[in-house]
Amino acid sequence: MAQKILVIDDDTDICLLLRRFLSKHGFEVAVAHNGVTGLAILEEFHPDLVLTDFKLGDMDGATILTRIKEKFPHLPVLIITGYSDIKTAINVMKQGAYDYITKPLFPDEILLTIRKALNHSQAHEQGGQFAEEAAPATPGSATRRKSTQAHYIFGEGPESTYLYKQVDLVAPTNYSVLIYGESGSGKEAVALEIHKRSKRASGPFVAMDCGAISRELAASELFGHEKGSFTGALAQKIGHFEMANGGTLFLDEVGNLPYDVQVSLLRVVQERKLRRIGGNREIDVDVRLIVASNERLMDAARRGRFREDLYYRFNEFSIDVPPLRERRSDLMIFAQFFLDKTNIELGKQVKGFTPEVERAFREYPWPGNLRELRNVIKRSTLLTEGDYVDARTLPFELLNYEKLLFFDSGTSTTPSVQDLPPPQPYYEAPAAPKPYTSSKVDLKSAALEAEYEMILNVLKQVNFNKSKAAQALGIDRKTLYNKMKNINLSN
Predict the structure, then answer these.
(1) What's the pTM value of the predicted model, to 2 decimals?
(2) The pLDDT of residue 469
(3) Is-contact 335 377, C-beta < 8 A?
(4) Which class for 20: exposed (0-12), middle (13-18), buried (19 or more C-beta within 10 A)?
């Protein structure tokens, strides 16, 4: 039976093209041109995957995703978005989207992402196992091996080495582990690595995204329910705890669980017994818990949003996964790792990256972390025709990030000038430098003059502290010095 895909986009041409393309590849496709119609078709069509544009005429991607996940929590949803909306797309992924696809759309990229999402969904239905098997990764030369079987590599820098040592230390124990890290930094991959190195490696690894489950379904997803226990409970359901029995249960974004569900969760964690919703029998469970959050749970507890006693149960051992911008020495190791995997997926033999691409990678702050790096490399590899990925295949926004930062500060993850400390009165600022001027009247000259004004304004705001200025601009100090030299600001 052909797998079903629902396409929701207010652009009729895109709907038509996607329907023809996906139908040729054996999928049964239904289309809708707005969110309301899409949700109505969803009830009758029962698709295996939903592909929706983020900006629809009647609702945005976050709204339609929430509505879908309320009724079909495990249905994979792919978001179509412009590259300038990448931060928004990342936020939507926190709410349960499987992945995002950036415009312009490339058929091979769409097909590859759809098949991965469907494979992941099938793996989840078969018990929550990861589709990709993990191979051991150790610091040093082993991290550089071109093994596409590994789901994750640690890198070789000091931050990565410390992370590896923590994983290696806690994995053989039965401690509950609390993992902190930004979205896309690899929290789930670290959790899986802990499981693979533990005594429970032969048991199941079950992952649950607490941010993607509605309040009404959270308890049912965790603990299961009996037939007829509530409206819509047409059959008995096994919860994630039972699925993970004898193995590891990973709860991502655990801080999003409703408070009343936290109470029930605390009892299960303490007693290792659960009772399905509507059931009378207590069921013993032997599960190791690994939870993750992008906010500090103690802070959430102080604000009354998370139970403090549950926090202490989880926090037997904690790990901080550093963001990609703090692992610059490992950046190209990760890039090569994703390139090797993408070569296998696309049947290509791209060898590496040009110096210009490596420089652009090192200067970009990577707000989406490893997930964003992976998607950029997948896209660029698809567009590469030679042996090396060159700058022409990179998104415009990545190459011009520091300029665009000023024109769309809402997409920046770096501190704004207003967030920085006020100028210190005892510091005597240097004389105003000679403004940059050019006799040429062209786009490049105008951009340089605009850059001059922007950098000078930031320097004034921070009392000409170059470290703070570089932080506000989202670039490193060396890049700032080079830019200042080019526009007569070096003094």
Answers:
(1) 0.57
(2) 79
(3) yes
(4) exposed
